[in-house]
Amino acid sequence: MTNHWVDIKNADLVLIMGGNAAEAHICGFKWVQEAKHVRRAKLVVVDPRFTRSAAVADFYAPIRAGTDIAFLAGVINYLLENDKLQHEYVNAYTNAAFLIDPDYGFEDGLFTGYNAEKRSYDKATWRYQMGEDGFAKVDPTLQDPNCVFQLMKKHFARYDADAVSNITGTPKDAFLKVCEMIAECSAPDRVMTILYALGWTQHSVGSQNIRTMAMIQLLLGNMGMPGGGINALRGHANVQGVTDMCPFTANLPGYLSAPTERDATAEAYVAARTTKPLRPGQMNFYGNFPKWWVSLMKTWYGDAATAENGWAYDWLPKPDGSYDVLAMFERMHQGRMNGFFCQGFNPLASVAHKGKVSAALAKLKYLVVMDPLATDTSEFWKNYGEYNDVDPRQIQTEVFRLPAELFAEHEGSFTNSGRVIQWHWKAADGPGETRGDLEIIAQLYTRLRDLYAKEGGALPDPVLNLTWPYRQPTRPSADEVAREVSGRALRDLTDAAGNVVVKAGDQLAGFAQLRDDGSTASGNWIYCGSYSQAGNLTARRDNSDPSGLGQTLNWGFAWPANRRIIYNRASCDPSGKPWDPKRALLRWTGTAWGGNDVPDMRPNAAPEEGVGPFIMNAEGVARLFAPGMIEGPFPEHYEPFETPLARNPLHPDKPEVTSNPAARVYKGDMELFGKADEFPYVATTYRLAEHFHFWTKTSVINAVLQPEHFVEISEELAAEKGIGKGDVVKVRSNRGEIKAVAVVTKRIPVLQVDGRKVHTVGIPLHYGFKGETKPGYITNTLTPFVGDANSQTPEYKAFLVDIEKA
Amino acid sequence: MIRNPRDLQRYTASERANHWVLGICFILLGLSGLAFFHPAFFPLVNLFGGGTWARILHPWIGVIMALFFLVMFIRFARLNLMGPVDWDWLSKVGKMVDGDDHDMPEQGKYNGGQKLLFWGLALSMLLLAASGVVMWRAWFSFPVEVVRVAMVVHAATGAFMIGLIFVHVYAAIWTRGTIRAMLYGTVTRAWAKQHHRGWYRQVTGKN
Amino acid sequence: MALQSLDIARRSATTTEAPQVRHTEEVAKLIDVSACIGCKACQAACMEWNDIRPEVGHNVGIYDNPQDLDDKTWTLMRFTEVEEHGKLEWLIRKDGCMHCADPGCLKACPSPGAIIQYANGIVDFHQENCIGCGYCVTGCPFNVPRISKTDSKAYKCSLCSDRVAVGQAPACAKACPTGAIKFGAKEDMVHYAEDRIVDLKERGYRNAGLYDPQGVGGTHVMYVLHHADRPSLYAGLPDNPQISPMVSLWKGIAKPLAMVALGATALGSLFHYVMKGPNEVSKELEDEMDKEAALEKEDAK
After folding, report:
1. In sequence order, what are the residues at sequence separation of 6 or more whose Cβ sits closer than 8 angstroms to the Cβ of residue B123?
2. C249 part of a folded domain
3. What residues form DSSP beta bridges with A166?
4. CB-count burial class (<10 Å; 0-12, 13-18, 19+) for B81
């Protein structure tokens, strides 16, 4: 979330799309209700199903699963055509005026530079025109045909209401009604918030779904505004914390891009990631990359990381390719990965294409499951009749189950969707032989270290030199780790005049104090300052809210720098006055930025200096044209890999752009995509209010509330197929089949798409063969093994199935 | 025991036993029923071991009573068919109650009042049994609207039947020499001739 | 507050006055159906606080689970899909005891103290006094009480009288994540509801209103409904609930009437006996029979 949970109450319009906040984020949804009841805000829901969110919405528009870009691109076109933009914002705070390379182009669904063989782009032409001063060229009049604004207008002109309705199945009048409601928020004192979740990310165009929405928020001037922003609702109390710490191979903690085989030396690695300002006077905050990275390396390797050895750069792994979740199971399936540690993860149930995952797990030598629950994955080898029909005699994988404590059984921190880090305390002892995750990892580490010390090995250094400064090496405390993550001074830090500002050994106050000379250590730069000399700021529980905007700056600690709304400089006009005085977050006081949030700006940057509010971008402004994206600088509608249409209505004669041309598809998986003639119905998977992922099926209370696996279909499809309410049905995709109870409902709309009728089959995912609920099939038996081109998040939300009475 | 060979046999041992089973059932049902009917009588549940026991026992006793009543009904129904003489008797009953039975028409084994009582009890029994089943939640589940009607029917019929039994009992007390018929099975010839001359003639062959 | 809330205003099968000297504020739970998303957190909280666990059931093609109230399910979300003016609405109502001001259950109950109404309006079942007759089921206009198959006692929502007694909100209200369940003084709840109704009317629900049915004297669980003109849209919420005339007859006039009638019969008999004397066999007949007996004896000789 660029904003935070409580801030939702400041919105005038709440759009829920690509998510179902009332169902999956119930507790946070209270702030939507607050906005509705107190501000009289309106709620709009766009979804393939009439969801629990829709049940309390002012307006609901149906949409075909996997066509969000077409819908949102249509909104952009509507805003541009009807001149419903916040012009001053767009001109000052986006790259609308930037000139793009004249060779950049877009034709027949492809941007310039496409390589069909590699399924990827050479992005050479997706760049700014650079002036002789070394800065990007701009045309403040927005008239140059190569400026972003004009290119954008041209790109989105194809998405008129008829085209949108034809692709999405959203009735034209409903689409236009949503456009009108959104367009009202182009006024500086009207703000829209958008709440989305996995309904946008879990597509082969997931990142572009979100980007299209971000563009809308920029055109409306809603980024940085209280009650605005673009808000990803995370599905777990600490999934934000997990991403922040980046236990993914593509990133280091704090979203620092990880080294790859291409980065031969530390210098090359750092240089490639340290940006230079693209416009004069910009903060170019990514120019600080060396400070963050060196401080991280000092945390990990302490005195062993020196300027001379490139801060121990050689000890960092340089992966030979992707290791995202799909890539890992692909490797496992190919027999190229033979051990797997599975911590707080139930991949058999939660990764796409259960059949492939199960086969992959069966090829492992060993599988270690650290979990508070006996997960389905930990018994993937066990025969549960039709629900898990495997032959244990054929599976040689050795499985170890390490019972772990649940979050309430040890102290630690949660980072919520709004980036607020909150300390939590232990409530009870874990049952039986459970151990905390920290202890399990520490036990493993110390034993491995002893083995390396005793026996040597191919490369013992990264293991032997790791700092392990904990009082009890086999039981580090959460407090010690939190201090380490936040960071401290390794030597006395002095200012330019030579005065000591931080004493050696003291905790740092924030990332502004980080240095690239090895004098500071911080395990995650964005968390720097969360545990300062003042103590553990994440444990603060002061809910006083002087502004009434719900900012509560003394409750926990929000990264970065305890800032509650990021890009908050953009809540003021270029002269430093709030766009909406009634919702004033910040203002220029004449000498400094001040107000109800930590300014996302150099505190003394006077408005006349023209420092842009999007400080993480080298441009200083937000990108309507974004060359960083894998499949194009502007979003384009591509069909899901399993489409009921067999063509992209925008490019009917170009089969290569039916689906995302830059998405990675593994050998063998392309052939497993189902075709509409055999699997005519669009399926989408989702969560229910009554359950939490695959945990609560082990709890009696939740099992009572939603006891059995079901699928939802429209009354029309049910009549066509002779399926009655409560009948058991068989749902088949090209990868497998499941059986579940039919819920026949008016809440599944039947859509008219590209001249035909499209039916949707809704499939909740919470069930499995372990637990208190009635034994059921695993929903992900059906889902395709393909991910978003940028994040590799699997496409769980749109695929094809057939359904019949069992 | 009075053993006068001249006494007339009015009820067999089996009939008497049947009657007293019903009598006991009635008392138990009346007491527990009244306890459920009006708070003033609720303490009567203690006779049964408390409210819950009273609730459990009442319907079972009801079942026993209904079965025995059915047997008795079959035994006596024909004897209780109403004839013109019975209606005549009934029209004159006021005078009799006032103490003058000289003008009463001659009666067979049962007089019009007894017969009417018999049919009143039979009807009550039928209604109580039927409505009681509807109310018996431990075993049956009827729509709540039906149960509500049954509640009223059961209560009203119950009260009515208790009233009838009051009359029945009082009549037995008031008409001296009657109770022994149900205790020993016999009545004196004088009693028979006075109250049921038709029957007297029938069993003695005399006038 | 704590003790005061436990003052008893009415007690089943009790004919005498309850203590009335102290004034207690009436409480109410307000369920804003227009804000409810049917997450069932209230059901979970109810199970947890009251330590009740219904059986894990089946899906029968609807979201309602369990499918009906029972001895271990004191509250339940009921889902209804309706189309109003071509617009689909998913009406979700939390069902359970309404805590009527004039409770039909209490009126029907024959067992003293098995059902009590506190001065704050909560209607509570005290199972230790319950005899399991099911009269409360018959008396309830909302079809709420359930007789347990295990112990034959009647159960229903207690409005967490134990929590309210110590100044806490009922578990369901405490757990409700969207603020659709509010709890407080009835007066405040009515006031809050008025604001919600204004909001709903602004959003086009012209018939939005408060469900506080006067047929049962008002309730201590109230609903804000978008369609207050048609409560029955919401999974059969009674449009005009009242204690059935049958129950009123049975527990009303029938009681004194029957008592008087029976008393009159009994007393009438007694006085008839002492005033008119018994109906004895006449002396003439006795003598006649004695003669007959003597004659027969002689004949026998």
Report:
1. none
2. no
3. none
4. exposed
How far apart are the C-alpha atoms of A27 and A689, rounded to whole Å?
Answer: 10
**Probe site for chain A from C90, C94, C174 (most A CB atoms < 10 A):** C90
CB of B187 within 8 Å of any CB in chain C?
no
pTM over 0.90: yes
Q: Provide the pLDDT confidence category of residue A107 given band limits of 50, 70 and 90.
A: very high
pLDDT tens digits for range A294-338: 999 999 999 999 999 999 999 999 988 889 999 999 999 999 999
Q: Which pairing describes strands A535-536 and A42-47: parallel, antiparallel, or unpaired?
A: unpaired
Place of tokens 């007690």: C11
CATH top-level class of A6-232: alpha beta
Residue of chain C with shortest Cα separation from A699: C56
Chain B hits for C281, CB-CB cut-off 8 Å, are: 176-177, 188, 190-191, 194-195
Work out the average pLDDT over A633-639: 98
**Could you say which architecture CATH assigns to the domain A325-409+434-462?**
3-Layer(aba) Sandwich (3.40)
Contact A635, A73 (CB under 8 A): yes
Q: ipTM higher than 0.85?
A: yes
How far apart CA A135 and CA A99 sit, in angstroms, is: 11
C151 with C105, same domain?
A: yes
pLDDT tens-place string over residues A645-704? 989 999 999 999 999 999 998 888 888 899 999 999 999 999 999 999 999 999 999 999
Task: Tell me if residue B168 is catalytic.
Answer: yes
| Domain residue spans of chain A | 6-232, 325-409+434-462, 572-613, 655-805
**Residue B21 touches partner C, C-beta closer than 8 Å:** no
Element housing A17 (H / E): strand A13-17
Q: How many contacts (CB atoms, under 8 Å) link B and C?
A: 135
Q: Subunits that touch chain C (at least 3 Cβ pairs < 8 angstroms)?
A: A, B
* Chains in contact with A, counting 3 or more C-beta pairs less than 8 Å apart as contact: C
What is the CATH number for B145? 1.20.950.20
- Residue C2: which pLDDT band, with cuts at 50, 70 and 90? very low
Q: With an 8 Å Cβ cutoff, are B55 and C15 in contact?
A: no
CATH code of the region A655-805: 2.40.40.20
CB pairs under 8 A between A and C: 123
A360, pLDDT greater than 60: yes
